[in-house]
């Protein structure tokens, strides 16, 4: 291996470590939502903003990924993203109200939203297309380990020391990475003069934030309140203006015509549903276990740990199986296993045992792990000649749906429970009904797989013969 290859591998490893760190920050706060509700005297849907706003900001930042990857060097991206993340961690640690905490989480989300898509672009640029499934599986393994271990450790840290100590960890870890970056990250990545359309950035921010804010407020105000209707209307109008503006730009913020590729659109839809349900459960399960079943954050984290470890394993198995038996069979397996998991969740009660919840969450995670990386890689291979734009569009929509999913799932349960998620039968029934909704969404994913998704070679041969 020559010096340049060694340098690129060194760069990739450090970026993947940084990506793992900022990924831990995404979900680790979910185990402390109940504590935030108590400390700041807020509702579950309001406290959930500490998680949802992070996802939303990441979703808003990802459209910039194509611009950032072309315009700035790896060194600039590394230091800027981690310094912003570090500042957010410090603010979260010293926060005295939910608003201040959310400001810190916004900054953390900006750092995550810059570095995560760049790592994926850097990886796909560095390896041949025929090896994408394998290497994306390895990348998915590393990224999957981070939130699982983080959530488990987070449950213990929050219970024993308080939620603020989570952010002291991020402060120390980020500082160490920045010091390592001084010596290991070089300015050897190519750049180009790529213009940024500021109006598109503003419209995308207003659009995404408005829609999510409106839906999040439903649980507290009902569907007819102006704090629900007004943000949604403003958000939708902004998104319409954003979509209409992109074709007029020589170099758009997001290359929306890429969605005209039927298979890329199907794959992106599949991934959006998958992430909406995945993040919805990530937000909802701790609230159910702690707020409805009256268990500790340690129990909540322990219930999720086995499944979290299994998703790590199946993040590797999924791509390997895809290389052997094809994408269609793997995604069908993933959907069916997930459907079984959601069906089991429909039978949760306040008295459900630790073993039953851990096993059923493990089943759900196995299905997700089987489908996650194969679906992502397959979708990008459909537009392999436009990997930067494909990554930007796919990741943007995925993250927005993940953010909306984490809010909507909690909102749906709260509405079905009569306005609040509490230790009562109504909340249990609402949880079961919401599990049914997510089961139906996975049936939709299964239908999409059967009708449209297949190996790239088979699709190309079919189109050629047609």
From TrEMBL:
It is a multi-pass membrane protein. It is found in: Membrane. Residues 11-457 form the Major facilitator superfamily (MFS) profile domain. Keywords: Membrane, Transmembrane, Transmembrane helix. InterPro entries: MFS (IPR011701), MFS_dom (IPR020846), MFS_trans_sf (IPR036259). Signal peptide: none annotated. GO terms for molecular function: transmembrane transporter activity. PROSITE patterns: MFS. PANTHER family: MAJOR FACILITATOR SUPERFAMILY (MFS) PROFILE DOMAIN-CONTAINING PROTEIN, MAJOR FACILITATOR SUPERFAMILY MULTIDRUG TRANSPORTER MFSC. This is Drug resistance transporter, EmrB/QacA subfamily. It comes from Methanobrevibacter millerae.
């Amino acid at each position: 291996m020559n010096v340049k290859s060694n340098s690129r591998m060194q760069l990739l490893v450090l970026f993947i470590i940084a990506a793992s760190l900022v990924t831990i920050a995404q979900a680790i706060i979910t185990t402390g939502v109940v504590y935030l509700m108590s400390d700041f005297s807020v509702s579950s849907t309001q406290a959930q903003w500490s998680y949802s706003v992070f996802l939303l900001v990441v979703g808003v930042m990802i459209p910039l990924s194509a611009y950032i990857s072309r315009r700035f060097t790896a060194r600039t991206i590394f230091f800027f993203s981690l310094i912003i993340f570090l500042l957010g961690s410090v603010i979260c640690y010293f926060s005295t109200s939910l608003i201040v905490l959310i400001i810190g989480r916004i900054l953390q989300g900006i750092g995550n939203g810059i570095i995560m898509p760049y790592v994926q672009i850097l990886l796909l640029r560095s390896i041949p297309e025929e090896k994408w499934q394998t290497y994306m599986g390895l990348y998915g393994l590393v990224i999957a380990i981070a939130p699982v271990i983080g959530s488990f450790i987070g449950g213990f840290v929050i219970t024993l020391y308080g939620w603020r100590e989570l952010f002291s960890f991020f402060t120390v870890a980020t500082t160490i990475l920045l010091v390592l970056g001084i010596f290991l990250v070089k300015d050897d990545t190519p750049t180009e003069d790529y213009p940024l359309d500021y109006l598109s950035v503003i419209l995308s921010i207003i659009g995404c934030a408005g829609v999510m804010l409106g839906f999040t407020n439903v649980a507290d105000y009902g569907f007819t309140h102006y704090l629900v209707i007004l943000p949604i209307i403003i958000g939708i109008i902004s998104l319409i203006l954003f979509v209409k503006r992109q074709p007029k730009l020589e170099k758009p913020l997001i290359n929306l015509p890429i969605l005209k590729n039927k298979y890329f659109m199907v794959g992106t839809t599949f991934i959006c549903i998958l992430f909406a349900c995945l993040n919805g459960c990530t937000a909802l399960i701790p609230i159910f276990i702690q707020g409805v079943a009256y268990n500790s954050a340690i129990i909540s984290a322990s219930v999720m740990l086995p499944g979290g470890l299994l998703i790590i394993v199946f993040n590797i198995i999924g791509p390997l199986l895809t290389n052997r038996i094809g994408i269609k069979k793997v995604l069908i397996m993933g959907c069916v296993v997930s459907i079984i998991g959601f069906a089991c969740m429909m039978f949760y009660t306040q008295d459900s045992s630790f073993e039953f919840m851990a096993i059923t969450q493990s089943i759900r995670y196995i299905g997700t792990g089987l489908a996650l990386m194969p679906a992502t890689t397959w979708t990008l291979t459909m537009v392999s000649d436009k990997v930067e734009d494909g990554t930007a569009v796919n990741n943007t929509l995925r993250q927005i749906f993940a953010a909306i999913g984490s809010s909507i799932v909690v909102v749906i349960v709260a509405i079905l429970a009569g306005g609040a998620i509490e230790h009562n039968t109504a909340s249990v029934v609402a949880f079961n009904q919401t599990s049914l909704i997510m089961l139906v969404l996975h049936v939709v994913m299964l239908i999409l797989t059967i009708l449209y998704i297949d190996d790239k070679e088979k699709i190309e041969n079919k189109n050629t013969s047609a």
